[in-house]
Each structure stands twice: as C-alpha cells, then as structure tokens.
Structure prediction request, 66 residues.
Amino acid sequence: MGLLRTAVIGAAIYAGVKYLTKKDSITGKSVVDDIKDKAPEWMEKAKDYKREFENKSTYAQEDLGI
Prediction:
C-alpha cells in the first residue's frame, strides 16, 4: 500500500512540474515564467500594504493611547 501511495504522489508531483514548466504554444511562456515576470509587481504591492497597515496601526495606537 505504501509503494502504491508513493507512486501516485510521485506521478502527481511530476504532472504538476510538467504543467508549470510547459511552454504555451501561443505566447511561448510557461506559468513559471509568468510568475517570475509578475513577482516584482507583487512585491511592490505587498510593501504598499505593509506601509498602509503600519500607518493604520500607528493611528489606532494614538487613538487608544497605547
């Protein structure tokens, strides 16, 4: 039973990696390439959310007198 389960998990991982790295016939880019291209944009958005949260938490601390 353990061998069968390991084989199924291995096949699923192989299929996932193959899907993520397969090049699209139209654009010639894979899902991983798209993620790499969009990562800097997502990092900037995350930094903006962090700054916004810090500002809101500062205002909340001032309002509550903490």
Observations:
- The chain has a mean pLDDT of 92.
- The CA atoms of residues 32 and 56 lie 35 Å apart.
- The two ends are 58 Å apart (CA to CA).
